[in-house]
Amino acid sequence: MGGVGEPGEGPGPRGAPLPTFRWEQIRSHDLPGDKWLVIERRVYDISRWTKRHPGGSRLIGHHGAEDATDAFRAFHSDLNFVRKFLQPLLIGELAPDEPSLDGPQNAQLVEDFRALRQAAEDMKLFEAKPSFFALLLGHILAMEVLAWLLIYLLGPGWVPSTLAALILALSQAQSWCLQHDLGHSSVFQKSRWNHLAQQFVMGQLKGFSAHWWNFRHYQHHAKPNIFHKDPDVTLAPVFLLGESSIEYGKKKRRYLPYNHQHLYFFLIGPPLLTLVNFEVENLAYMLVCMRWTDLLWAASFYFRFFLSYAPFYGIPGVLFLYVAVRVLESHWFVWITQMNHIPKEIGQEKHRDWASSQLAATCNVEQSVFNDWFCGHLNFQIEHHLFPTMPRHNYRRVAPLVRALCAKHGLSYEVKPFLTALADIIRSLKKSGDTWLEAYLHQ
């Protein structure tokens, strides 16, 4: 290990041989303030870089002491540009006789997946069609205008108000999908324009911070269904999912009647996620991290909303309409985003390769014109998780290649009917609750 410079510096004089490391040495560097990772067999000390990482310190830190090659390729569109930032962090490389992957991982699967990704690149499946996303934005804006016209032409009665709330909720749902595309940098080649577009959609059309969403959502993609690394499944002590139900039962923890969580889920899950949890978390993030530009974008949404509907309803009525829209939108968000994840394996870190970890945590929902539109192509969760920067209009084209890879290696490629996928959320919550009760009573 001689010749290693300070963290963040080069490994030594230019042209000097790189120090070599073994996995047993690398494994110990997965602590706060001491993070190493491996990319393309090169070892990097990211300890001082994590707080400057554009995707957030948690995202890159979750790969500490691991081979992060496929995650690196999955999240970055311009690899040569990003490698310039990695160069000063280089401290060595894996010893020649060390495997590229640590632990009992399937090297052939990793090789085949990388070949599949290369095939997708050769097929230009990572190139977006701006017209596709322009059409999506157009139909979102059309729904916003239609909702206002209903109130303007028919008056603020119950029927037009209800229809307007439903249309606005659908508009919000489709805005989630569009900002999701923009957040993964799949629309524009220039990230500056991509981020500006996301700030408009996320801020002006939704009232949330683009930085907050990316900080939260990228962690989900990096380590889906892993406790304390994926915020979407770290729901204890309100809900127990997967392995947490056994842990809470053995430790005799009973903050809520978890054997009935599949019932109280209807009261505090879908109705309140975006209305309460997201609103509070989003505002706290902007204030603590001093994201003043995001705060102004979000404020512009509320200004427009109240300016548009206050003449019809007054301030109390606008607040009621806003709550109704958020509750309806929240139902869409919970059911559509979680039907692909909650019924799957949820637990502690298992340090799998990229393809295996994504496949274990995701499933698809049957393809149809309605499902593609209503779900924002999130019915193709397997393809989306394997290739997060791929524009969604190409999921159908890459899906046969993914199915072939899964068949070759005996991996599950699960596709469900839409209603079955929704019902599986409740079945999974009940199963976890029953598991908790059994462990609680008999351990």
From TrEMBL:
InterPro entries named in the record: Cyt_B5-like_heme/steroid-bd (IPR001199), Cyt_B5-like_heme/steroid_sf (IPR036400), FA_desaturase_dom (IPR005804), Fatty_acid_desaturase (IPR012171)
Statement: the UniProt record of this protein carries the keyword Membrane: yes
GO cellular component: endoplasmic reticulum membrane
GO molecular function: oxidoreductase activity, acting on paired donors, with oxidation of a pair of donors resulting in the reduction of molecular oxygen to two molecules of water
Transmembrane segments: 132-152, 262-280, 300-325
UniProt keyword list: Fatty acid biosynthesis, Fatty acid metabolism, Lipid biosynthesis, Lipid metabolism, Membrane, Transmembrane, Transmembrane helix
Pfam families: Cyt-b5 (PF00173), FA_desaturase (PF00487)
Biological process annotations from GO: unsaturated fatty acid biosynthetic process
Keyword Lipid metabolism in record: yes
Membrane topology: Multi-pass membrane protein
SUPFAM superfamilies to which the protein is assigned, alphabetical: Cytochrome b5-like heme/steroid binding domain
Start and end residues of each Cytochrome b5 heme-binding domain: 18-95
Annotated localization: Endoplasmic reticulum membrane
Pathway: Lipid metabolism; polyunsaturated fatty acid biosynthesis
Protein name: Fatty acid desaturase 3
Organism of origin: Trichechus manatus latirostris (Florida manatee)
